[in-house]
Structures are given as structure tokens and as C-alpha cells.
Amino acid sequence: MMLFLTESTGDLDEARSIIARHFYTNFVDTLSGRRGWRARFGIAPAGSVTLGDLSFGTDIRMQFGELGAYHVDVPLTGAMTWRQGNGPSHTATTSKAAVFQPVGGTTLERWSGDCRLLAIKIDKQALENHLAALLDAPVPGPVQLRPTLDLSGAAGASWLNLLRLVAAESARSGGLLHHPVLGARLREDLITGLLLAADHPYREALHRPRPVLAAPRSVRRVVEVMRAEPSRPYTVVELARIAGVSPRSLQLSFRRYLDMPPLSYLRELRLGVAHEQLVQADPSQTTVADIAYQAGFPHPSRFAAAYRHRYGVYPSETLRS
Fold it and tell me: Which end of the chain is more exposed for a tag (fewer CB within 10 A), N or C?
């Protein structure tokens, strides 16, 4: 069930606490004085999807660590300038939404006082599992979504209309959105719509007609084994034996259904495992080399290069943060 919460405050610490409780731990400060402003938050938390109708009433700057979730901010009025990780600054407007990855420190450099926005937070695993279901094939996460979403094009505008509808209905007491089945379906539709509208490596595959046959059992079996023990030193010959097919057949199947060879898929899984461990680890108790080795990377320098290519930062930066 979706529960809509309305909160309003002119206290900076209270505003910080509300955002932390429903979205992410943060640091926030005003950029244009603290008198006379009032933040207003309408929030609808519902399992894997949290919706927010948010405004501060004064220019602010806000900083987060890694979000751990996919997130989109859609200004209804005003604008917001932001950046994530080591990437460049972007500006979100009424025609261009901000799209955030689960990884990479996040800074809202200026959230203008006249900016009211719709925010949607989507659980990382929920989005990746939903994408895998749409493709009928495993997806190595995280999915690299383009940092901005054009809301003036057909797909972006349609998704925005759906987001507005869901946000409005979430505030309606006794509305159909509060129904456990219909509400869940609409939240799934929000994820589907975002995946169809946003740019990412799987977008073209989503728009292509789905193949009659799903990924073969051999591919599914190998993926299951890899996910169960990603640090194990597999070879293609061993994986083919597990799948019950020839090495060449396994290679061709992986390229056809996952767009990469099996050992590349394994490396992506290992990078994901290492990232989760780096985020959770205490830098005084472990090192990047230890985590790399545990995840299946015997060469720390190669691991650091692959990690930076995927996440935009060095593993040591993630560990320190």
C-alpha cells in the first residue's frame, strides 16, 4: 500500500532529517539566506519505489554519498544544477530531468528557490531485475543510464505524464493507486517507462521485437553458477562443461543473448561484488587489494583500472567514502 506523507518546515535540520528518512543521508545548506523560507515535502514511500513532491522555497546546496538507488528528479518549476562522481555539472529544467546512478557521490550544486520537483527513487535491484525480465535475459548491473532525460520528446513526455498521474493519485485518499495490485502494477509501469525513455545500453534491445526463444538453459545455468561463486577461477572450458555444451557454443550463446563473452560477464559480476564490499567496508580494517582478491581479481592494478572505467572513480575513493 502507498502511504502519502505531507511535511512542512522552516528548520534546516528538520528538512535534512526528512530527506534522510525517506531518501538519502545528506548535508544541506542555504545559499541565499535563511529567513522566511519554508520547505514542503509530499512523500509516498511504497517498497521499491518512493515518490516525492519537493520544494525548499530558497536556494540550497545539498550533498549525498552514494545513493545506492536509481533516482530521477523532474523540475515542475525552476531549475537545479547537479553533478555525480567526477562527471560534469548538468542542469535539470522543466524539459530535461536529472537521472542519477546508484554509485558516485552526488551534489546538488544549486536547487533554486522557485524549483518544485517530482523525485522518484527506484531500488537498484528492482530496476535491474525488471530490466532482466523485460529482456528475458540476465543483466549485469548497474545499468548505465544517461545523466539527463529529454522530457520534450515523445517517450520522455509520455513517461512524465505517467509520473504526474501516479504522483497525483498517491495523494488521493482511497484512490485506486492505494490498491495493492493496481498500485504495484503502476509502479512497475513507472520503471518500464523510464527504461524505455532513458538512454542506456539496453534501450535498443527493449525496442526490438522480443525473440521467440528465451535465453537457452545453458546460459541460465552458467549465470546461476557465476552468481553463486563469482570469485571462483572459472575457465571457458569449465563453464561449457557446467552448461553441457561446447566452449564455442557457449561463447556464441553469451554473445547472442548477453552481448558479451562469458568471462566478460563474470568480470562485470565481480566488479559489482567488489563495489558492494568497498561501500560497506571499514578502511581501517581492510584494503582495496584484499577486497579485489576476495572478489576474484588477483591483480590490484588491473582491478583498479577496470573499476574506474565502470564506476568513474578509483576503488580507494569508494573505500574512503
Answer: N
CA dihedral 127, 169, 100, 37 (to 10 degrees): -160
Minimum mean pLDDT range among 99-103, 253-257, 283-287? 253-257
Question: Is the same domain home to 93 and 53?
Answer: yes
Mean pLDDT of the 227-235 span: 89
Domain membership flag for residue 228: yes
List the domain range (segments joined by +) for residue 170: 5-205
- Residue 210 domain-assigned? no
Single pTM value for the model = 0.69
Assigned domain for 184 exists: yes
CA 164 → CA 17, 190, 270, distances in Å? 25, 10, 38
C-alpha cell at 136: 528475458
